[in-house]
């Protein structure tokens, strides 16, 4: 591909290894796997596949780096702050390289990766750089007659953190785990998704170049058995996972063996509610962005569209027209508006849901039940009407460019329908009635609720879910809570 930067060509010119204790090493058993370009279905490079033996090696390295007396433990909060800021600058300096690697491995458009994923990753390091020096405790008065005490709390790092991340935002999700963990002084073993290991590996080298001590961040590409070995390992103190609810339940069960800390950002099936008094043009644009962003592979996408009956046909027509206008193509093609799905498995899954809905009597207002290209994992943006609340296309997280639309009449009716799901990650409301917006927003059981917008976000804001969408919150000041232990210290003054 002539558009590739020399740095990207160089990176792909040799098999990729594991990062353990600051060194690039082969898997102990020599196993590798191929990572695939979803636009062309061609092999990009072979990647080392970590086994439980490699997990043991990484845990020892991370534990050694964490313990008292190590170079990492001796770094002051100010040292960590400066290091985090330096890493953010390096990510920005290599933004074009990261964006091309992300587009090759994940399929998303180069511009979307650079201006969205990579830019936010750099900002994450800079934002948390400010928090490294602000991990404060509190002094608490005690009431014990005749005796005097000094009681205070302190925030301390948890220890060794296993970060297991998905393939839809590979670099960004890796940073979601690494950044708060090292801000608080933990060490990390990162397990990237087997579909998209490349930017995590490139980040590993960049962290070393920035001066992060050996063993503080280790990178272990692999499959489910690699992640399971991390979850089961007694030397891991915390697991931070983003991915499906099904896998999240397995992680929670596995972590119960030694009660290690767990934070989970899991699946979603977000309702997007449009009332008849909304700015309809803005609501249609919001529904398109909310439904088809990132090829539909985003857990907070508004995949369940509820439209008040009086404007239902108008909204469906508008969303369908916009969906049909989206050009699906290679992430390196400047004319493309949407790239492919990440893998053959995901491609087959999404088309299976669309075909199932048609077989059940639903109507395709936009999109197709067939592939959108001769090669590559391309699926056209799809809008489906005539669905019921019981259909799989309505209840399941599809994770593709598929939106269902259902009419409603009353506020109570739509709130009940919106909340009738095992998920609770995100939701949205479109109305020009400010009272209704906040009233309905308060009734929706979701971790993030957008009012007259969608995908508005910032690294300062906490994110996470209700119900089976997960445990804990990431980002913002709240994002440090799951990476620290709160210790109480009591001293008697004599």
Automatic annotation (TrEMBL):
Q: Which UniProt keywords apply?
A: Oxidoreductase
SUPFAM superfamilies the record matches: ALDH-like (SSF53720)
Entries under PROSITE patterns matching the protein: ALDEHYDE_DEHYDR_CYS, ALDEHYDE_DEHYDR_GLU
Catalytic residues at 265
The keyword Oxidoreductase belongs to this UniProt entry's keyword annotation: yes
Taxonomic superkingdom: Bacteria
Q: Does the keyword Transmembrane apply?
A: no
InterPro entries for the chain: Ald_DH/histidinol_DH, Ald_DH_C, Ald_DH_CS_CYS, Ald_DH_CS_GLU, Ald_DH_N, Aldehyde_DH_dom
- UniProt domain Aldehyde dehydrogenase: residue ranges: 24-489
Q: Which Gene3D superfamilies match?
A: Aldehyde Dehydrogenase, Chain A, domain 1 (3.40.605.10), Aldehyde Dehydrogenase, Chain A, domain 2 (3.40.309.10)
Question: What PANTHER family would the database entry show?
Answer: ALDEHYDE DEHYDROGENASE-RELATED (PTHR11699)
The entry's family comment says:
Belongs to the aldehyde dehydrogenase family.
Q: What is this protein called?
A: Aldehyde dehydrogenase family protein
State the organism named in the record.
Paractinoplanes bogorensis
């Amino acid at each position: 591909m002539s558009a590739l930067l020399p740095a990207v060509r160089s990176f792909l010119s040799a098999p990729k290894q594991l990062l353990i204790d600051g060194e690039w090493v082969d898997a102990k058993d020599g196993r590798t796997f191929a990572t695939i370009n979803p636009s062309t279905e061609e092999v990009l490079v072979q990647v080392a596949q970590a086994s439980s033996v490699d997990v043991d090696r990484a845990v020892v390295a991370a534990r050694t780096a964490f313990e008292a007396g190590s170079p990492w433990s001796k770094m002051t909060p100010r040292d960590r702050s400066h290091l985090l800021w330096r890493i953010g600058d390096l990510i920005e300096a290599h933004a074009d390289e990261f964006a091309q690697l992300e587009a090759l491995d994940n399929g998303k458009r180069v511009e979307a990766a650079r201006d969205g994923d990579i830019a936010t990753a750099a900002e994450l390091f800079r934002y948390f750089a400010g928090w490294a020096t602000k991990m404060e405790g509190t002094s608490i008065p005690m009431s014990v007659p005749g005796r005097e005490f000094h009681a205070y709390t302190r925030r301390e790092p948890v220890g060794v953190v296993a970060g297991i991340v998905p393939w839809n935002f590979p670099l960004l999700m890796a940073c979601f785990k690494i950044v708060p963990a090292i801000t608080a002084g933990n060490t990390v073993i990162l397990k990237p998704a087997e579909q998209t290991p490349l930017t995590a590996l490139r980040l590993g080298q960049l962290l070393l170049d920035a001066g992060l001590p050996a063993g503080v961040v280790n990178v272990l590409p692999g499959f489910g058995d690699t992640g399971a070995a991390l979850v089961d390992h007694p030397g891991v103190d915390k697991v931070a996972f983003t991915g499906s609810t099904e896998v999240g339940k397995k992680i929670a069960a596995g972590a119960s063996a030694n009660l290690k800390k767990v934070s989970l950002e899991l699946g979603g099936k977000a309702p997007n509610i449009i009332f008849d008094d909304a700015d309809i043009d803005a609501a249609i644009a919001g529904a398109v962005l909310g439904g088809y962003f990132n090829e539909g592979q985003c857990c907070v996408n508004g995949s369940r569209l509820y439209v008040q009956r009086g404007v239902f046909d108008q909204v469906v027509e508008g969303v369908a027209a916009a969906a049909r206008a989206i050009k699906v193509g290679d992430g390196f093609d400047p004319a493309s508006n949407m790239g492919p799905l990440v893998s053959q498995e995901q491609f087959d899954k999404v088309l299976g849901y669309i075909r199932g809905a048609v077989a059940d009597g639903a109507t395709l207002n936009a999109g197709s039940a067939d592939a959108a290209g001769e090669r590559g994992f391309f699926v056209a943006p799809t809008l489906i009407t005539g669905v019921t609340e019981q259909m799989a296309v309505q209840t399941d997280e599809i994770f593709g460019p598929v939106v269902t639309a259902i009419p409603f009449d009353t506020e109570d009716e739509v709130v009940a329908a919106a909340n009738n799901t095992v998920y609770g990650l995100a939701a949205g409301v479109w109305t020009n009635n400010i009272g209704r917006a906040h009233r309905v927003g308060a009734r929706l059981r979701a971790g993030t609720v957008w009012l007259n917008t969608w995908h508005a976000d910032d690294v300062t804001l906490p994110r996470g879910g209700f119900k089976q969408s997960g445990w804990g919150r990431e980002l913002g000041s709240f994002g440090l809570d799951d990476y620290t232990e709160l210790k109480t210290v009591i001293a008697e003054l004599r």
